[in-house]
Amino acid sequence: MSLEREKQLLARNDDELVQLVERLDRESKAPKNDSRRSGERFTYRAGVIPCMTFDTNGTRRQSVIYPRNISSGGISLVHRGYLHSGTEIHLVLRTRDGEPMIIKGLVRTCRHLSKMLHEIGVQFEEKLDPADFCEPDVIEAALAAARKHNPLPKLTGRILFVADSADEQRQFQASLASTGVSIEIAGCIGAAIDALKTKNYDVVITDDSLEAITADKLFATLRAQSHTGPIICLTWTLTDEHTAAYDPDETTAFVQRPVDARRLAAQLAEIFPDPKSAANGQESDETPPPASETDPQNAGSRAA
């Protein structure tokens, strides 16, 4: 059967398909299903898109699927026909910018829905960031609903978050908003230097892929501003080889992207567990002494 014919068959009764997916969404919101999820899922409606499946016996078949939601580790979709667990599948997903990406994964679940339609659960070969595929309002609405159903712990402290993406800044703030923690944003290393010169922070959380400065210089620059508290680095490359390349005195911990807000909140709770501690986000009476004129300092200034 041709790919075009597959598309026609899957989309020929669009109303029925939409109703079916909406029913699945309602079922997935039931409390009994929440404990089975390893990551937050976000609504992802991209219409009928192509895919390639590779059976365990080596048979290759071109087909189409209709995605309904996506997480960092997998995707739920509707497929016309049964797929065995363990079947390799390659999906062509488009980012918010319209860039096509081939995403590889394995079929983990398959259940019959109606007629020839089946709900397929796919586990990705490598984790991805749902924010690359879903609009910011979709991400924020899903996170808000998750926090309401299963709230994060309350935290008292001050975070300096360093990231040069406006979307990432907004999502980070939204993910921890219910904890009560104070979050200040630095959009580049230069802004982070200025903030650290005038205020004390319980923890600095930074992206390791800022423009105009390498990760090793980034950490050294932050330490040069008299910040002695924890520095947490968000990274896509969480391997022993990668983390061993950095000075442990400069970087306290690495956190795998995409960030799990619940795990991060638990980690932050260990950093400032006592709301009455001296490092609870209050500005110090004295401005920290200026950092010495080092190469990392100069690099940070140029990045600003």
Describe this structure in words.
This protein is an alpha/beta fold and 304 residues long. It folds into two domains: 3-132, Beta Barrel (Thrombin, subunit H), CATH 2.40.10; 151-303, Rossmann fold (3-Layer(aba) Sandwich). 32% of the residues lie in helices and 26% in strands. It contains ten helices and twelve strands. It has helices at 3-11, 14-28, 31-34, 136-149, 166-176, 189-198, 215-223, 240-243, 261-271, 295-303, and strands at residues 42-43, 49-54, 60-70, 74-80, 88-94, 100-114, 117-124, 158-162, 182-186, 203-207, 231-235, 253-256. The strands form two sheets. A six-stranded antiparallel beta barrel has the order 2-3-4-7-6-5. The longest helix has 15 residues, at 14-28. It is elongated, with a radius of gyration of 23 Å.
Secondary-structure element pattern, one letter each: HHHEEEEEEEHEHEHEHEHEHH
The side-by-side strand order for the widest beta sheet comes to 2-3-4-7-6-5
The CATH superfamily of the largest domain appears as Response regulator
Main β sheet profile: 6 strands, antiparallel, barrel
Structural class: alpha/beta
Name the CATH class of the largest domain: Alpha Beta
Q: If you average the pLDDT, what whole number results?
A: 78
CATH topology of the largest domain: Rossmann fold
Number of domains: 2
Task: Please tell me how large the radius of gyration is.
Answer: 23 Å
Q: Quickly count the helices.
A: 10
Strand content: 25-35%
Distance between the first and last residues' Cα? 57 Å
What helical percentage do the residues reach?
25-40%
